[in-house]
Write a structure and sequence with these properties.
alpha/beta, 24% strand, globular, 6-stranded mixed beta sheet, 3-stranded antiparallel beta sheet, 8 helices
Length: 240
């Protein structure tokens, strides 16, 4: 998988997505390049999840263009996406991770070794034989992260993966995300938790009603927002 062409940068050129008469994303121009984690923030309905789905190729723009590494199509297996509520197969933790490697070309022994390595990284090796669906929400999200990381993705897209977790589980997931970023995986994550954004983000994309209102380093976004909407959002005011 590491020998495949890079899907980065991902470039959005005038990307708009509509559903009926509703504009979900409106003329978005951004480049997502390797480097520090990019966090996508904004009020509910601002287009955060849609942006991630477009990056993953799960949605198609109504107008505009998206390219992956300069190409019109992405490379299979190079990108991974996690949702707020992960889907667990009716299998053990180990089997959930191994299943995710079924189309990688790795031998069975290699898949087992990779599974063990990532379960150690997410702190779940001792639960490898436990049914995945019987784990807590935080543990399931860590299994989902292990399943994604086992494929050694170039880009990891995360859609509010800690939104339903308690503080301890949130911190455990954040540590795994930080570890992945430090290993060179590009993180693009939607979050409503500004404390989390402060802790993890390198840059921030701020959306309101489908439009990109601000793109800045995390430090500038919080300390020197350049738009009234961003300043209000940072203060915790209602932005609609």
């Amino acid at each position: 998988m590491r020998g495949a062409p890079s899907d980065l940068p991902i470039e959005f050129e005038g990307v708009t997505l509509r559903s009926g008469q509703t504009t979900i994303l409106d003329e978005v121009d951004i480049t997502l390049a390797p480097g520090a984690p990019t966090f996508v923030v904004g009020p509910n309905g601002s287009g955060k999840t849609t942006l991630l789905r477009l990056c993953m190729g799960l949605s198609v723009p109504t107008q505009g263009k998206i390219t992956w590494g300069g190409r019109d199509a992405l490379c299979p297996g190079r990108l991974a996406m996690l949702f707020q509520r992960p889907v667990m197969l009716r299998r053990s933790v180990a089997s959930n991770v191994i299943y995710g490697l079924s189309r990688t070309g790795l031998s069975r022994d290699q898949r087992i070794q990779r599974m063990k390595e990532v379960l150690v990284k997410v702190g779940l090796l001792e639960l490898a034989t436990r049914p995945a669906r019987r784990l807590s929400g935080g543990e399931q999200q860590r299994v989902a992260l292990a399943r994604a990381l086992a494929r050694q993705p170039e880009l990891l897209l995360l859609d509010e993966p800690t939104a339903s977790l308690d503080p301890a589980a949130t911190r455990a997931v954040e540590e795994i995300i930080a570890m992945a970023a430090q290993s060179g995986i590009k993180i693009v994550m939607a979050s409503h938790d500004l404390g989390q954004v402060r802790r993890l983000a390198g840059e921030v994309l701020f959306f309101v009603r489908g439009r990109l209102h601000e793109r800045a380093s995390a430090a500038d976004f919080f300390d020197r927002p350049s738009t009234d909407e961003a300043a209000a959002f940072v203060r915790g005011d209602l932005v609609i």
